[in-house]
Amino acid sequence: MNPAWENGNGAGTQDRDGAGQLRQPAELSEWDSTLRLIASVSVPEGLEERVHAALRAAPGGARLLAWPAALRPRHAWISGGWSRAAAAAAIVFVVAGGGWGVYMRLPHSPKAVTMPAAQKTGGFSSAGAIRTPDSIQGPVLTKRMAAAPLPAKPTARGKAHPGRPKAKKAETASPAASVAPAAVPVQR
Amino acid sequence: MSIGEAVYAGWIRMPSTTGRLSARSEQAMAEEAALSALVEQYSGTLYRVAYSVLRNPADAEDAVQEAFLRVLRHRHMLGEVRDRRIWLVRIVWNVVLDRKRRAKARPETDDVAELARLLPSNGLSAEEIAAASERHAQVLRCVEKLPAKERQVLLLSAFDELSSAEIASILGITESSVRSRLFRARNLMAEMLDHKRSLR
Question: Is residue B112 one of the residues assigned to a domain?
Fold first, then answer.
């Protein structure tokens, strides 16, 4: 243990000998010698050289951009804060001017993008569609319905329209057949 | 190491201009020469401090290099440092604690063979060296079981070149705290070693 300051620490595990020096108990000297052994380990050879090599290989750290020596201004006040402030102001001016120029060249009229006008009458709107597709023509009758209506079947339950005679389903042709309906002969 | 030697070593850059050196480059050269002198003067102390915690030669050397790299990064502060030795020990102490924290998952390397290598071999038989190594390893295992604050004070107190005020400065505590922690550490060590002896 460090004798230079250990004597005044007031540790209760120590007692004084006749000369007034602190005496350590036997069990303390055991771990004390261990710690001293660790603390006095020999330094490996070439440590300084390896540290120097590590420092040499280390990057130089952050540095300010500097002018080349040939272009370096001679007067001290230029190389100080004035020149840096002027350079920063020039950079800001160029960036802001470029942005303003791009902004001014862009067309920014309010008609460029218009929202479709919403219908005030309700229902679905065309959502601004310019052209709507033609609707397909409906089915064409190929047979005429019978003249006499069929007798209604007696049913126990009442239907929604009990008095209406049930019409026979007419045969329908494909929509393609409806292109020339006059050419189809009507069967009687 | 002088400035000329440092230039030769390659990590001090001479300015490319042949004219008068600017004040800035002169200051940089002075800082790097001071750092070179610190390497020469205190690398051994830093290595021992690092070894007392890490107990591995390679890790201790890495810690010393990392500490000096930190100094290189903050070399502009060298002029403001009052006691460079304590400043350096504090840096390497922080590096070492950081490494120890990161390597906590790894098992402790209190290798008996490594301790036997440290022991002076003059006049001791192989059996005596083995017994002493085992005893030292047992003490170090007890040191590792101490609370962190007490353990740190105990480890630093083993260095002759560090006073209690300097240990307090390294650890960032008061001198009275150093003394009280050391007192607690001693008591705990005595208890643990007595307990081990009674188990034998």
Answer: no
Cα B89 to chain centroid distance, Å, stands at 6
Domain extent for A30 = 3-41
A52 to B1: CB separation less than 8 angstroms, yes or no: yes
B11–A56 C-beta distance less than 8 A: yes
Q: Give per-residue pLDDT as tens, B156-172.
A: 998 888 899 999 999 99
**ipTM here:** 0.73
Model pLDDT for residues A127-147, shown as the tens digit of each residue: 777 776 777 777 777 777 766
pTM passes above 0.90: no
User: By three-state DSSP, how is residue A143 classified?
Assistant: strand
Please state the φ and ψ torsions of residue B197, each to the nearest 5 degrees. -65, -40
In a domain, A21, yes or no: yes
Task: For B137, name the nearest residue in chain A, comparing CA atoms only.
Answer: A34
DSSP H helical ranges for chain B: 3-9, 23-54, 57-73, 84-102, 112-118, 126-145, 148-157, 164-171, 175-199
Our CA-based measurement puts residue B105 at a distance from the nearest CA of chain A, in whole angstroms, of 23
